[in-house]
UniProtKB/TrEMBL annotation:
<keyword id="KW-0479">Metal-binding</keyword>
<dbReference type="InterPro" id="IPR000905">
    <property type="entry name" value="Gcp-like_dom"/>
</dbReference>
<dbReference type="InterPro" id="IPR017861">
    <property type="entry name" value="KAE1/TsaD"/>
</dbReference>
<keyword id="KW-0819">tRNA processing</keyword>
<comment type="similarity">
    <text>Belongs to the KAE1 / TsaD family.</text>
</comment>
<feature type="binding site">
    <location>
        <position position="182"/>
    </location>
    <ligand>
        <name>substrate</name>
    </ligand>
</feature>
<dbReference type="GO" id="GO:0061711">
    <property type="term" value="F:tRNA N(6)-L-threonylcarbamoyladenine synthase activity"/>
</dbReference>
<dbReference type="InterPro" id="IPR043129">
    <property type="entry name" value="ATPase_NBD"/>
</dbReference>
<keyword id="KW-0963">Cytoplasm</keyword>
<feature type="binding site">
    <location>
        <position position="113"/>
    </location>
    <ligand>
        <name>Fe cation</name>
    </ligand>
</feature>
<feature type="binding site">
    <location>
        <position position="169"/>
    </location>
    <ligand>
        <name>substrate</name>
    </ligand>
</feature>
<feature type="binding site">
    <location>
        <position position="117"/>
    </location>
    <ligand>
        <name>Fe cation</name>
    </ligand>
</feature>
<dbReference type="Pfam" id="PF00814">
    <property type="entry name" value="TsaD"/>
</dbReference>
<dbReference type="GO" id="GO:0005737">
    <property type="term" value="C:cytoplasm"/>
</dbReference>
<dbReference type="InterPro" id="IPR017860">
    <property type="entry name" value="Peptidase_M22_CS"/>
</dbReference>
<feature type="binding site">
    <location>
        <position position="278"/>
    </location>
    <ligand>
        <name>substrate</name>
    </ligand>
</feature>
<feature type="binding site">
    <location>
        <begin position="135"/>
        <end position="139"/>
    </location>
    <ligand>
        <name>substrate</name>
    </ligand>
</feature>
């Protein structure tokens, strides 16, 4: 079975093609992504209207490249992200998926973007056992419990305000580092002291939800710190601020992910989303997983960011699990939960 996945929930137009191997794994046949990230850079964040327009322009060429790379005329099934994501952006991918499904006379399967971030890891690391997944990007921060990729996923927690990657972007902007700020801030943090400034760890008090996150207090604490330096005429120690901020984010994310594994008796933790490129998040996750005997699975960076392969891979699991095709009138679901 050859499955083609379409992804357009944010600023990446992705078309991926995989072959289902029948043993809980897939083989990658094509992975084509066109990103509009450069167009958003001058606004300091993703502009929904700009993203939708870029999807419109890129969808057909990306599809053409993917089919050529895989050497196929048409797949056996199409899967598409219906949510969560930007409403206008999702509409482009879903409309394209319906049109191709109709034209090729192949079944269409609507899937959840978040499950794709977990499923994609099977490409590199084999069948997925029961796991906890921590998804961190510019748009989402989720802690999930996955028993089987073909079954509904349970959300354990999410952010009550900013996404983790968004917090990186906002703090980077505050420090004048440009957009997207995560990679620059990560590099700068290597030169700083992570214990120089005691920034707050949001939602870690005894009365806070066990698995939810909050990053807006941390972002405000960084802003106050920078303002204080300015007021006192002291140069902002940017590397120390970056390192201390990054330490606070990585600390909370890994602490809650490990807590979820321990509480549920789950021994596999999967990371996904663009912000998992963060070096401190990775090293702290490795350290803490090793200490607790938890297996850590992290897809390679290329597959951590949004792409069509993750949607094709999740789709293959869902189809093999016996799901019924979606109707060609299936709506988008921008606020979709898992
Ligand atoms: O998954 P992704 O490519 O797409 C969106 O969410 O749109 O994630 C991008 C996010 C951005 O917020 C970016 O700043 C963050 O991931 N990011 C990082 C790093 N690399 C990317 N955050 C922290 N450290 C990094 N090394
Ligand atoms: Zn994503």
């Amino acid at each position: 079975m050859i499955v083609l996945g379409i992804e357009s929930s944010c600023d990446e137009t992705g078309v991926g093609i995989v072959r289902w191997n029948g043993d809980g794994t897939t083989t990658l046949l094509a992975d084509e992504v066109a990103s509009s990230v450069d167009e958003h850079a001058r606004y300091g964040g993703v502009v929904p209207e700009v993203a939708s327009r870029a999807h419109l322009e890129e969808m057909v060429p990306t599809m053409r490249r993917a089919r050529a790379a895989a050497g196929i005329d048409k797949p056996d099934a199409i899967t598409v992200t219906i949510g969560p994501g930007l409403a206008g952006a999702l509409l482009v991918g879903v409309a394209a998926a319906k049109a191709y499904a109709l034209a090729w006379d192949v079944p269409l399967y609507a899937v959840n973007h978040l499950g794709g971030h977990v499923a994609v890891d099977t490409l590199e690391h084999g069948p997925m056992p029961e796991c906890v997944a921590l998804l961190v990007s510019g748009g989402h921060t989720h802690l999930l419990h996955v028993t089987d990729l073909a079954e509904p996923i349970v959300e354990l927690g999410t952010t009550v305000d900013d996404a983790a990657g968004e917090a990186f972007d906002k703090v980077a902007r505050l420090l004048g580092l440009g957009y997207p700020g995560g990679p620059v801030l990560d590099a700068l943090a290597r030169e700083g002291n992570p214990t120089a400034i005691a920034f707050p760890r949001g939602m870690t008090g005894p009365r806070d939800a066990r698995y939810d996150f909050s990053f807006s207090g941390l972002k405000t604490a960084v802003a106050r710190y920078v303002e204080k330096c300015d007021r006192e005429g002291v140069a902002v120690p940017v590397a120390d601020v970056a390192a201390s901020f990054q330490e606070a984010v990585a600390d909370v994310l890994t602490m809650k992910a490990i807590r979820a594994c321990t509480d549920l008796g789950v021994t596999t933790l999967v990371l996904g989303g663009g912000a998992t490129a963060n070096s401190r998040l990775r090293s702290l996750a490795e350290e803490r997983c090793a200490a607790k005997g938890i297996t850590l699975r992290v897809p390679k960076p290329r597959l951590c960011t949004d792409n069509g392969v993750m949607i094709a891979t999740l789709g293959a699991h869902v189809i093999a699990g016996g799901a019924k095709p979606s109707s060609l009138t299936v709506p988008t679901d921008p606020g979709m939960s898992v």
